[in-house]
Design a protein that fits this description.
151 residues, SRPBCC family protein, 48% strand, START-like_dom_sf, 8-stranded antiparallel β-sheet, alpha+beta, Polyketide_cyclase/dehydratase, TATA-Binding Protein
């Protein structure tokens, strides 16, 4: 299992930050995501389904993200319905300067070569999560961003 995470301090209240991060229809800032389209279920809420186009390690992928958990204005958990075992967790907490955003992507690749593929993709995953957080922070006027790390 590979885990990559990144954090940023946003100069807005958690409620304002969460309103943006929980709008999956406009979540092309998510790690590796290049396009999003609502498929069904609520646009904001548990059960919402979104077709995503992603690009990572030179590959173009399509899949369906499902909003599995939503605790407004604190946490959202997204999972990929088929294919790669992928979970994206987004946490927003109060901070002295506004709010702290943390994005974590956890994934595993099955099959005989899964471990090798995971290890090879880890640097790209770290870069993508850091890019995602920085891109979102830029929408608010970035105050502070910390790079991704593996736990």
């Amino acid at each position: 299992m590979i885990e990559a995470s990144a954090t940023a301090t946003l100069p807005v209240l958690p409620k304002q930050a969460f309103a943006v991060v929980s709008d999956i229809s406009n979540a092309d800032w998510l790690p590796a995501v290049r396009g999003v389209r609502h498929l069904g279920g609520p646009k904001r809420g548990v059960g919402g389904r979104f077709e995503v186009e992603a690009g990572m390690v030179g590959r173009h992928l399509r899949g369906v993200l499902l909003v599995k958990e939503l605790d407004d204005p604190h946490r959202m958990v997204l999972v990929l319905e088929e294919g790669l075992d992928l979970t994206i967790t987004i946490d927003v907490t109060p901070a002295r300067a506004g709010s702290k955003l943390r994005v974590e992507a956890r994934y595993s690749v099955g099959g005989a070569f899964g471990g090798a593929v995971e290890r090879a993709s880890q640097p790209a995953a770290r870069r993508e999560v850091a890019r995602a957080v920085e891109q979102l922070a830029a929408r608010f006027g970035r105050e502070d961003a910390a790079p991704a790390r593996r736990k």
